[in-house]
Every structure is written in C-alpha cells, then in structure tokens.
Amino acid sequence: MMIDAMTSRLRPVQPGKTTLVAVLDIGSTKMCCIIARLAPRPEGRSLRGRTHQAEVIGFGYGPASGVKSGVVTDIEKAEQAIRTVVGMAERAAGLTLESVLVNVTAGRLGSETFSAAVSLDGQEVEKADIVKVLKAVNSRSVRPERSIIHALPIGYALDGQKGINDPRGMVGEKLGVDVAVVSAETLAMRNLELVLHRCHLQIEAVVATPYASGLATLVDDEAQLGVACIDFGGATTTVSVFNDGHMVYADAIAIGGHHLTLDVARQLSVSVADAERLKTFYGSVLPGQSDERDMIPIQPVGASHDEAPGQIPRAVLTRIMRPRIEEILTAIRDRMQATGMMDVCGRRFVLTGGASEMTGLSEVARRLLARNVRMGRPMGIAGLPDIAKGAAFATVAGMLVYPQVCAQEYAEPRGIRKLTGTDGYIARVGNWLRSSF
C-alpha cells in the first residue's frame, strides 16, 4: 500500500476571494516561473468553469538544463536553472516564494479508469460516503512503483443510474464512482522533488502536463462534447482526452520538437543551433509548390566563417521533418485506438505546445488523425508578456487555472515524509546556511 501518493494538497481558491499562486514549468528545453494574482471574475460564456481571473505579477523564463524528457539527469544543473527563473519571477513580483505548483511529464505518465461502489442502505448520500468510495478506488489503484498524481471522479452512479454529477443529498442503496487516475513512476517524481528542496521550495501540488495544457486551451463546450489536446513539447509529446467536462485519459511519449532539430542537424551536418534556426524560419511539414526552387543557405559543421554557405532546396528540409511528425501523430493515434479513446474524444483535436507552431502541422494532423484540428493558445490569463502568449506556454498557463478546479479531485491525506538527502527542518536550515554564506 503506497502511503506517499502525490495527489494534491492544494487548498482550492475560495469564491469571492483574491489569492496569490506561484507555478513552475520544468521542461526539457525551457523553464518558466509565473507568480499571479487570482481575482474573482464574473461567469463568462466560453470559460464557465473558471471562477477567477489570473493576473501575472512576476515572470521568469530561461533555457532548461539538467532535464531530459521531463526526467532530472543532472541535479546540479537543474537546480541552477530553477533558481535562475524563480529568482527572476521573485524580483519582478517583489516577494519570496516558499512553495510552488509544479508540472510533471516524467516517469512514463499514464492513466487508468477505476470503479468502486459502497452500500448506502437507503440513506442520504453525504460527503463521508463520497470520501469512502474514493478511498476504495485509491486502495485498488496504488502500486509501489508508481505515484498517483491525479484522482479525478468522472461520473457517479446511484443504484446503477449513471450520469450523476453530484450525488450529495440524494438517497439510494448503492453509490458507485468512476475515477480517472493519472500516475507516474515514483523515483522520477522523487528526484524532481529533491531538486526543488535543494532550491528551498516546497511542492504545493503536482499537475500532469497534459491536464494543464487542456485546462489552458480548451473551451467548455469542447470539453463537454469530447476533445483531445496534444501538447508538442521540446522532448515529450503529451495527450489528454476530455469528455463530459472531465479529463478521462492522459498519456505521454518521449518524442518532441527537439528530436526534429536533431534530425535536421544530423541529415544536413549542421550544428544544433543552426538546425533549430532552419527549423524555425524555413521548416514545414507540408510540401509547397515552390519548395524545389526555394533555396536555403546552410553552414556545415566545421566550416570557417569566410567560406560561402551551402544551399539546399526547402523541399529537402520538409522531407527530413515530416517523417518525425508522422511518427509522433501515428503513435498517439495507435495508443488512443488501443484504449478506445479515439471514440471518446469525438471529432476534435486541439494542438498546442511550442513545436505545434510548425507550418503545415495542423493539415498533416487533420489527414493522419481524420479529425477536425485547431491550434490552441492559453486563454483567460491577463498580464502575460508577449513572449508567453504563444502555444509554448500553454502548460504554465494551465497551472494557473488548476487551483480553481482542484476541488473536484480526491486528495489522500498524508503526513510529512522525509526525502532521500533531507533530514527535516533543522537540516534544511543548515543546508541553506551552508549554501548562502
């Protein structure tokens, strides 16, 4: 029985009250920290689930280091990168952070749906009954090697009658619940937590990257009718499926936009920096009529600056990039078909993430997935700098939405636990003194 699940300890924001929230996006190619003020907002038409308006007061952004495919690979470099972006946000907001919400893509992220039921003996459903049935699901879903990140009730049933959103106050003989459980490998989570402790930051809550991306980019009608959100990150691509307003499925594969950059670098024998520039300025995954005639200058690795750059047709770049994108989309489609999620997600896909802004990606996805496709950007966040308004910042924007919806989740109560390499409060103070002076 696992006693250290990572389900949220976060206290939901109170209706009508303003609060501060700090979020940290730890990616493989970039890291971003945002401090925002959540202020009550009137209910809107398109984003009905949001009770608060997020206004950014501190923003820090920088390249990632010590992280590969969401997994910590160098604890010293990761610590330095996190300290840099958190420090930028703290200086902009004029305050010091003690805890943050952090995203997780690492540890073979996956999801399963579990069901459980409890007897009511004809009594009225109370909150204790809901907690009891959720505990029953939790006890069935835990495994020693995996930590539960989210336990999201996606539907209640009373005496076999499904489709009940909130059964409290109703009477019946048997209360059942279906719960979507998102989990990751425990050791990968522990290393992430250890890095943050070295930065003197507590984890207030862990949010799965695909869940956060969906919260930021989907409108309520999409989430109600059925939709899948694909987040093309630097070294990972994640997918989440929403139906009836709830996330019902999450998955991740360890291929992302940086792999396209490496493909270009290897095939054209250019540096990784030049390959990134070529991909950004000239790259497309959809061939054009003039691609064979349009010539692109390239500087081979090892060439001196006084040498004339070589030239290749733009079509060559397209032929290098397209197979990798098709590989990613095909892998996602096959996984969703194997779990039955292609039917659950309806007829719509939303593409987001930094690598989703490639020319022609939406058209290739439309052909390969046989679904309607649109591009998704963060919605309903005020005060974001221009650099952070694009699809690359969907995850960090979704983490600002998360405190408004986390009340739906089951959170397992747990005590304070020790981590490898930390020995409680006194040792942390000693570490701080040693590292600071």
From TrEMBL:
Self-interacts. Interacts with FtsZ. InterPro entries: ATPase_NBD (IPR043129), Cell_div_FtsA (IPR020823), FtsA/MreB (IPR050696), SHS2_FtsA (IPR003494). It is a peripheral membrane protein. Residues 21-217 form the SHS2 domain. Pfam families: FtsA, SHS2_FTSA. The keyword Cell cycle applies. This is Cell division protein FtsA. The keyword Zinc does not apply. GO terms for cellular component: cell division site; cytoplasmic side of plasma membrane. It is found in: Cell membrane. Keywords: Cell cycle, Cell division, Cell membrane, Membrane. Cell division protein that is involved in the assembly of the Z ring. May serve as a membrane anchor for the Z ring. Belongs to the FtsA/MreB family. PANTHER family: CELL DIVISION PROTEIN FTSA, CELL DIVISION PROTEIN FTSA-RELATED. GO terms for biological process: FtsZ-dependent cytokinesis.
